[in-house]
Structure formats: structure tokens, C-alpha cells
Amino acid sequence: MHVTLNHYTPLVVCANAIRTCWQSFDKSDNGGEKDRELIDRVGNKFKHASTLEHLSYNFYIKGVSRALLQELARHRMASLSVKSTRYTLKELKDEEPFKTSDIKRASKYLVLTQIALVDEMSIKALENLRQVLFAGISNDRAKYCLPESYKTELTWSCNARSLQNFISLRSDKAALWEIRDLACQLY
Ligand SMILES: Cc1cc2nc3c(=O)[nH]c(=O)nc-3n(C[C@H](O)[C@H](O)[C@H](O)COP(=O)(O)OP(=O)(O)OC[C@H]3O[C@@H](n4cnc5c(N)ncnc54)[C@H](O)[C@@H]3O)c2cc1C
Fold this sequence. Notes:
The protein is an alpha+beta fold. The chain folds into two domains: 7-55 and 158-186, Gyrase A, domain 2; 62-152, Gyrase A, domain 2. The chain has nine helices and four strands; from the N terminus they run E-H-H-E-H-E-H-H-H-H-E-H-H. The protein has a four-stranded antiparallel β-sheet with strand order 1-2-4-3. It is elongated. Residues 74-77, 162, 165, 169-170, 174-175 line the site of flavin-adenine dinucleotide.
């Protein structure tokens, strides 16, 4: 997986939002150490967490499975724009048939697990999908035989409060290994 932070709100925006409450703008150090300490104290320690919503982060997330995507999509306090299978499945049409030994070629399309039996079955599912597309079935119908391991990519935007919630839930050892990796990378 590959995660890029494309855009983020400068910390001074959040610090000024907090300073609005006490009209203490003169104490701002433009997102420096004083402002950071203020954000941590008010937003985290005093649990005035709505102030953290003024900080927004925009990521590009690439090479994750659709299994991860359906878990990520459960986080309602975020915005997603996802690569459309309806419009992009044609990428498979021109591929040669996949053999179960074609790990490298298949990994362009699949998140592999390093569990040989699982990866073999994923590659078989990929080959099934290729055959369906090759037979001229529309993307709209062919997508119903996509394996969960099929790779996708998305733009994901989230505010700092929701990002904290995401990282705390998904970095836990109870979380799915792949989304745990994502949580670490986002952090
Ligand atoms: C280890 C693990 C296992 C899981 N297993 C399952 C499973 O088996 N089946 C399953 O369906 N899901 C499962 N989930 C998903 C989980 O139930 C949540 O849907 C997901 O983690 C999103 O969390 P969230 O609601 O806090 O996040 P968000 O949707 O981003 O919401 C953020 C916060 O906003 C508030 N909020 C949002 N919407 C509402 C609302 N309607 N009412 C009140 N407050 C709201 C809550 O405080 C919430 O914490 C699992 C999650 C984890 C981490």
C-alpha cells in the first residue's frame, strides 16, 4: 500500500478556533509550540474535541484491497472518492491468462497475503474475472465476481477528531492486519 498526504490544514487554524473562545489571539505563535500545546490541552486533555474538527487531512491511498475498503467505508466521519470498478475493469481485458504461479503479475491487481493457499485462490478468482471480461460481459455485471483481494485506490479526507478515532480503533491488534497497516501509515 502507498499513502500520500496531499493536503492538511495548518495548526494555527485550529489554535485560532480555540482562541476564539477566550479571545486570546494575541497569545498565538502562528502554529508553533504554544499553539500545539493549546490544541493538545484543549482538544485532547480537556476533551473539547470538536475544536479538532477544524483540522482536515486529505490522503491518496493506493494498493489496498476491497476487503479493507469496506471496513474503511464504515467510518462515516470521513469522505471517500474511490476508483470505480465499473469504469476501470477494462484494465484486465488485455492481460494474458493468469496461472497460480504468476504472483508478480497478479500482485498488480491483488493484495496478496503470503498465505500460499489464499493467494492461489485469489489468483484463480482474478483469472475467472479476466475470462468473464474477455467474454464481453459488461463491467457492471463482471464486478460481481471480483475477489475481496482486488486492489483499489481512493482519495480520503478526514478531520483530526475522526482521524484520532480511526487510528485508535484500527491500530489495535484486534483490527484487520491490512487496515492496521493503513492506520500506522496514516499516523
Ligand atoms: C476490531 C473491530 C471489529 C469490528 N467488527 C465489526 C463487525 O463484525 N461488524 C460490523 O458491522 N462492524 C464492525 N466493526 C466496525 C465498527 O462497528 C464501526 O462501524 C467502525 O469501526 C467505525 O467506527 P465509528 O462509528 O466510531 O466511526 P465513524 O462512523 O467515523 O463515527 C465517528 C464517531 O461519530 C459518532 N457517530 C457517528 N455516527 C453516529 C450515529 N449514528 N449515532 C451516534 N454517534 C455517531 C460516534 O461517536 C463515532 O465514534 C469493527 C470495528 C473494529 C475496530
